[in-house]
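Query structure, 152 tokens:
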């Protein structure tokens, strides 16, 4: 009887402790919309863009490939496949920029990168990593149009 009461007490204590950890701001609909797990996280692919092997392109070819690169990024944002992108400062690793792709596998990310004109022209190459981050990461994109003064 004493052991039964102890087990019941421990169970009630465990359940009430877990209940206290529930986030009072939790929005189940938003969590579902962004694909969040119970921790508000999800799987992405982190892409480290780096200088590619093509060192013989002309300025015209280079400019055209990077114009296409920017256009392609805009298309990927509209398709909800690209949630973060940006250039890197000078560094000793030849990293040029990052992408965080809203896909679950490196194979899917490789297919997306194959559509990028700068990658196709071998002006950029990429290192890809599985990355687990906030499922709400892409939500900042709604505000980004409101905070930049100039269009690309």
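Result returned for the query:
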């Amino acid at each position: 009887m004493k052991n039964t009461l102890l087990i019941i007490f421990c169970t009630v204590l465990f359940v009430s402790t877990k209940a206290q950890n529930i986030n009072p701001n939790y929005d189940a609909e938003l969590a579902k919309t962004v694909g969040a797990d119970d921790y508000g996280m999800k799987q992405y692919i982190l892409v480290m863009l780096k200088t590619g092997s093509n060192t013989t392109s002309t300025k015209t070819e280079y400019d055209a490939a990077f114009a296409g690169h920017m256009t392609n990024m805009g298309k990927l944002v509209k398709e909800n496949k690209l949630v973060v992108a940006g250039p890197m400062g000078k560094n000793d690793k030849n990293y040029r920029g990052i992408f965080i792709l809203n896909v679950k596998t490196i194979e899917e990310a490789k297919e997306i990168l194959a559509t990028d004109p700068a990658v196709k022209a071998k002006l950029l190459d990429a290192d890809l990593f599985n990355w687990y981050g906030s499922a709400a990461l892409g939500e900042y994109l709604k505000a980004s149009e409101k905070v930049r003064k100039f269009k690309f």
